[in-house]
Amino acid sequence: MQATAYTYDSESRSGQVLLDDGTPVPFDAAAFDAGGLRLLRPGQRVRIETEETGAGPGAGGDSGAGRRITLVTLHTF
Questions:
Q1: DSSP 5-51
Q2: Residues sharing a CB contact under 8 Å with residue 63, sequence separation 6 or more, in sequence order
Q3: Residues 19, 3 contacting (CB under 8 angstroms)
Q4: How far lies 12's CA from each of 3, 5, 72, in Å?
Q5: Phi, psi at 70, each rounded to 5°
Q6: What percent of the chain has pLDDT over 70?
Q7: pLDDT grade, residue 73 (50/70/90)?
């Protein structure tokens, strides 16, 4: 799945991406480290992998609910 980097904190190595529908989804340091990146700039296009969480689809009415990012890496063609 593709997304756009929205926020990134280099100290905690965590932040948020925006899905193509505009929904912000947070990622933690483990997801950032799994992608092998050293830096992420807001607006940068990224590829993410997700897994379902216990919140379930539709929780809160947005498409990011019930989803956890497990990997953030650069989008390549």
A1: EEEEETTTTEEEEE-TTS-EEEE-HHHHHHTT-S---TT-EEEEEEE
A2: 19, 21, 23
A3: yes
A4: 20, 15, 15
A5: -110, -15
A6: 84
A7: very high
- Per-residue tokens: 77: 């063609």
* CA 44 vs CA 14, 18, 36, 60, 61: distances in Å: 15, 10, 15, 27, 26
pLDDT tens digits for range 44-69: 999 999 998 876 545 444 555 678 99
Q: For residue 55, what pLDDT is reported?
A: 60
**The one-letter amino acid at 13:** R
Backbone angles phi and psi of 28, in degrees to 5: -105, 180
